[in-house]
Design a protein that fits this description.
The complex is a heterodimer of chains A (about 300) and B (about 400).
Chain A lengths: L22 H13 L3 E5 L3 H5 L12 E3 L5 H15 L5 E6 L2 H5 L2 H10 L4 E6 L36 H7 L4 E6 L3 H12 L5 E6 L3 H4 L6 H10 L6 E4 L3 E4 L8 H5 L10 H25 L7
Chain B lengths: L1 E5 H11 L4 E4 L6 H13 L5 E4 L3 H13 L4 E6 H16 L5 E6 L13 H4 L7 E4 L3 H18 L3 E6 L7 E5 L3 H7 L16 E2 L5 H33 L6 E4 L6 E5 L3 H14 L4 E6 L1 E3 L3 H8 L4 E6 L9 H11 L7 E5 L9 H13 L8 E2 L5 H6 L2
Parallel strand pairs in B: 2-3, 2-4, 4-5, 5-7, 6-7, 11-12, 11-14, 14-15, 15-16
Antiparallel strand pairs in B: 1-8, 6-13, 10-12
Helix pairs in contact in B: 1-2, 1-6, 3-4, 6-8
The chains are: A alpha/beta (about 300), B alpha/beta (about 400).
Chain lengths: ~300, ~400
């Protein structure tokens, strides 16, 4: 056995229906490696509703329950309650939603489950727009991005909603960000989430070549640049208070990230300046929160 | 064990006797007492169930869909706008073939806000595929909770039991109840056909094209039809064990009846009294109570109503422009028969307006005065609208 931190077992199969270079497939592959066979997936409407394959096929080797768009969290809470009443306390329940099913239409149910501290893992693979329906803006779409509903020259005029801060404000036991460019880190975080009782939220940046107008072979690089530019820092938060920010990564200017995506083609110098300033402000804020919370308690 | 229970608490007792394992619900008047009592039962441990206190009815239905998919008996209750908010998930529960039981307290839909009874909330869910059973008394409410699970689990479809706001939900009656141990004699533990099992992983509800979807909907249609006899047997079996049964429809004094009044819910009880009184005066009147609305007991309705010379349907609901919804159903049920029976459609009691013996007598008087209806739909007791709007 090689000393390899990522399990070799594949619970996601070939033959799925994702586009070339889809970040969401990488996210699922590594999440399932971390969680293992004893997992049930609750899947609202999202790209993965299609990626998983049509009846009678499925591209994952764990049970999947497809549910309506806005119900990932509430349906997952029900599945968990049902498993508990069957006496199965081992199986992890994974709500697996896109950014629409998390930030927008699924937000109420997610907030409800977070407030109740339901014992589920809610993972959002964030490709920053309604990609399954053909690239319409969501509240996860960043400032300045082109989508079919924010066409040139009226690209998105408002910044991305900060789901991370909103979930932190719910003081759930564990939340984390992850990137498909850092699989070891992603696997670690899903493993950690599996071992914690109560609500867990993992926010994964998952590039979408079709919607970002980027080259399929650039998916991992973009997912890495999102982190290294500090646009999407890798963070863990326990109980909404104790922050751990990954700081030992090389820093890259955000232009490296933006310039490789057609959706940002029309950004002006001023727009880029605004994005850069926003990144710096948020990064400082994050470090302040980390300092304020102090060391992560051993029992967290 | 006899208890004095309001209709809402009769449902809570019914859920307890059904040994439900997961409950998810959101408060709404006039349903709230159902979930209050269930909360107490879960807290005290007399009911071994998880109660998920969700943040909306949409989430309530989504949560019980999840728990039923995990393979346990699941229950929820709501009313009016709550039911309407669930609408999408009612379709989902049907398509996913999950035998959830939902209690709906019939309440009018806003605007304007109105918390009193009418049937437009439940009847607007007609084509979701939920089974629908309308109750007349609190005893029937309790008994029907168990029967609903029995039928739902036999045909793998969700069921809604329906009771009138306030006339049942908040009115106390003597109800003979029992606990889960006795309930098991009738309703054994739920054995799901399929469930979310990591040892036997399957995907449920994934993308299905025209090649399969059509047959899946045909199967639901066939199981709806099958549910008619399943419900008949479930009711008879309940009667054998507990001495109470209700039928899918109930005939009351229809022997030799030339005019048959068709009712549902609590209007039925008032109608029984009026029928008795007018029978004494020699009128050939009878009553047909519709208890099972979905699946629609077509043959039962035909058998009774084709014997009549006039059929009078009272609807506490309205399909705007076309008339009462029960009337539409019955009219269509009578179409492919060789008998032509004039059908009088009456609207009464919408928004909780009282349907008194006087209202029923007015209805019977209208129909007895003519051979054939002079209006497609009669609205009974409509005030002078100009006066009522200006409050003068």
């Amino acid at each position: 056995m090689r000393n390899f931190p990522i399990p070799e077992d594949e619970l996601m199969t070939s033959g799925h229906l994702a586009c070339q270079g889809c970040g969401a497939t990488q996210a699922m592959r590594f999440a399932l490696k971390a969680l293992g066979k004893q997992t049930v997936i609750v899947m609202p409407a999202c790209c993965w509703s299609v990626i998983d394959g049509p009846f009678p096929h499925s591209a994952v080797q764990v049970p999947v329950f497809h549910t309506a768009f806005e119900t990932a969290a509430s349906c997952a809470a029900g599945v968990k309650a049902g498993l508990d009443m069957r006496g199965d306390h081992e199986t992890a329940v994974l709500a697996w939603a896109g950014d629409g099913g998390t930030f927008d239409i699924g937000f109420q149910a997610l907030s409800g489950a977070a407030e109740r501290n339901d014992d589920i893992i809610f993972a959002c693979y964030d490709n920053e727009a309604y990609m399954n329906t053909g690239v319409q803006r969501s509240s996860a779409t960043p400032f300045g991005a082109w989508t079919t509903t924010t066409p040139h020259p009226h690209t998105k005029s408002h910044p991305k909603k900060s789901m991370f801060e909103i979930l932190a404000a719910h003081r759930i036991p564990y939340l984390a960000t992850a990137s498909v460019a850092y699989p070891n880190d992603l696997v670690d975080k899903f493993r950690r989430a599996r071992g914690i009782r109560g609500m867990k939220f993992i926010h994964i940046i998952a590039p979408c070549p079709a919607g970002w107008k980027s080259a399929p072979e650039k998916t991992v690089e973009l997912a890495r640049l999102a982190v290294q530019s500090r646009l999407f820092p890798l963070v863990e938060v326990w109980q909404g208070k104790y922050y751990l920010v990954k700081k030992d990564l090389p820093y890259k200017p955000v232009t490296d990230y933006l310039s490789q995506q057609g959706r940002f083609a029309a950004l002006s110098e001023a727009d880029i300046g605004r994005i850069q300033a926003d990144i710096e402000e948020r990064w400082e804020e994050l470090l302040r929160k980390e300092q304020l919370g102090g060391p992560v308690p051993g029992n967290a | 064990m006899q208890k004095v229970l309001e209709g809402n608490h009769a449902i809570s007792w019914g859920a307890k006797a059904s040994d439900v394992k997961v409950i998810a619900a959101y408060p709404i008047t006039p349903q709230t007492q159902i979930v209050e009592l269930l909360s107490e039962m879960c807290t005290s441990g007399e009911l071994d169930a998880k109660f998920i206190k969700v943040e909306s009815e949409h989430s309530a239905m989504a949560a019980v869909i999840g728990s039923a998919a995990a393979g346990v008996r699941s229950f929820t209750a709501t009313s009016s706008h709550g039911l309407l908010l669930m609408h999408e998930m009612l379709h989902w529960a049907v398509g996913a073939r999950l035998p959830i039981v939902l209690a709906n307290v019939n309440r009018a839909v806003g605007p304007p806000w109105n918390i009193w009874t009418d049937q437009n909330d439940s009847l607007s869910q007609r084509d979701t595929g939920l089974l629908q059973i309308y109750c007349e008394s609190n005893q029937e409410v309790f008994d029907t909770t168990l029967q609903a699970f029995k039928v739902a689990e036999t045909v793998s479809l969700p069921a809604m039991l329906v009771l009138d706001a306030f006339f049942l939900s908040h009115t106390s009656e003597i109800v003979d109840v029992f606990g889960a141990e006795t309930g098991k004699k009738y309703l054994p533990p739920f054995k799901p056909v399929d469930f979310l099992d990591p040892d036997n992983p399957k995907a449920f509800g994934n993308l299905t094209g025209p090649d399969y979807y059509y047959e899946l909907r045909h199967k639901i249609h066939k199981d709806h039809l099958r549910a008619i006899d399943v419900a008949r047997r479930a009711d008879a079996e309940f009667g054998k064990i507990f001495g109470r049964s209700y039928g899918l429809v109930e005939e009351y004094r229809t022997e030799g009846a030339e005019t048959i009044l068709v009712t549902s819910g609590t209007i039925t009880s008032t109608a029984r009294v009026v029928i008795d009184e007018r029978r004494e005066r020699g009128e050939k009147l009878g009553l047909l109570k519709i208890r099972l609305f979905r699946p629609f007991p077509l043959e039962d309705v035909r058998r009774v109503l084709t014997r009549a010379r006039k059929v009078l349907v009272i609807d506490r609901n309205i399909g705007f422009s076309i008339g009462g919804i029960f009337a539409q159903e019955i009219r269509s049920a009578l179409w492919n028969t060789r008998v032509h029976v004039p059908l009088f459609s009456f609207i009464a009691g919408i928004g909780g307006r009282d349907v008194t013996p006087g209202v029923l007598n007015e209805i019977l008087d209208i129909a007895s005065a003519v051979e054939y209806p002079e209006q497609e739909t009669y609205w009974i007791g409509v005030k002078d609208e100009e006066l009522s709007y200006t409050g003068r």
